Amino acid sequence: MATERLNSILSHLTPTKSGLSAITHKNPDDVVITLAIRTPLAKGFKGGFKDTQLDYLVYSLLKKVIQKSNIDPQMVEDICLGNVNDGKAAYTIRAAALAAGFPNTSAASSVNRFCSSGLKATQDIANQISLGNIECGIAIGAEMMSAGGDRLATPFHEEILKNQEAADCLQPMGQTSENVGKDFDISREAQDRFAAESYQRAERAQKAGWFDDEIVPVTTIVKDPKSGEEKQVTLTKDEGPRWGTTYESLSKVRPAFPDYGERSTGGNSSQVTDGAAAVLLMKRSTALKMNQPILAKYVGATVTGLAPRIMGIGPSLAIPKLLGKYNLSLDDIDIIELNEAFASMAVYCLNTLGIDHSKMNVRGGAIALGHPLGATGTRQICTGLSECRRQKKKILLTSMCIGTGQGMSGLFVNEVL
């Protein structure tokens, strides 16, 4: 430990590295990920988790974290849950953690930054570790969209609504997608072709077993909607991918938001989904001391804001902002997980940033897999790191748009080559 501490001190005294050399440099104080797992993603309202509550899903995944990592639960100092729809999520994570086997000395909290909540939870735990406030923590993202949406029951106060951008925060997500399509001329054909590729990539990945090392099985109860009969099931695979999907089949799907436009459909928009994902984080020195396998280094994350009515293009602003902080370019990035909230925003970000599509959403994205709001940020980390391991690639970038007009992006270095 004395040698590690000396190296850490010396690293602060030596000239600052930049770009790839800086983020791939290993330091005892690095924040690292030692486990990244997720549940299968189930179809909302009709899938395998439709009768499962958020608390049970979180509890089940936290138990898997203990089992898969073999970590002493006493070492986990804080657990942060990213969730959007459940206003009682802070109660849920605390109770679920205690029931899963974590001691009452392991603290817990919840965060909500809409679709980036899972990444926000990861950032919060990583920042605590980086500052020395804790040495080990868990970030988990979870969403039961079968439980209902997050729309406001009443509009904002009339004084707030006098500001147009504040009023635009009330626009339904489908309307914002149509805004992007019309404002930036993203055609229905372009959106359907992108969506077809997402489905085909997910099908290819699922058939090849690429998701197997990131998914843990979850056993739960499903009720027959007609008879009410309950049966126990074990979910092991994502339910979203529709094998055999083509551009031709998607082009026949009716518009989903006809009041606002005709380009976004149920076929080229993200699916309503239930699921959860978790990452275990700690200092590199702690991981080495505890004999925990180091999967990746957490480099950093950042967030930005933009006009709420075109919230979907958030990644086109968050990604350059994050890359600029580390003196990187897109050429330095090996794998990109960009959330496909809608094909409109995905096509815009792909084209505007000039992303090489071959390294973005290699296993498909939210259009094919689903978008459990609070879970997506951590799900992307699980999927992206797994793909990095498969391809023996190093640098992972994740990003997503955020309701009310924001974007977030995260940067990671795979260390299993």
Textual characterization of the structure:
The structure is a single chain. With 417 residues, the chain is of the alpha+beta class. 37% of the residues lie in helices and 20% in strands. The strands form two sheets. Strands 1, 2, 3, 4, 5, 8, 9, 10, 11 and 12 form a ten-stranded mixed sheet that branches. The protein has a two-stranded antiparallel ribbon with strand order 6-7. A hairpin with a 6-residue loop joins strand 6 and strand 7 (230-235). Helix 3 (54-69) packs across helix 4 (89-100). The protein is globular, with a radius of gyration of 21 Å. It starts with a helix and ends with a strand.
Set down the secondary structure blueprint:
Elements: H1 2-13, H2 19-24, E1 31-38, E2 42-43, H3 54-69, E3 78-82, H4 89-100, E4 107-111, H5 117-130, E5 136-144, H6 158-161, H7 164-168, H8 173-183, H9 188-208, E6 218-223, E7 230-235, H10 247-250, E8 273-283, H11 284-289, E9 296-305, H12 315-325, E10 335-338, H13 343-353, H14 366-369, H15 376-391, E11 395-402, E12 406-414
Parallel strand pairs: 3-4, 3-5, 10-11
Antiparallel strand pairs: 1-8, 1-9, 2-8, 5-8, 6-7, 9-12, 11-12
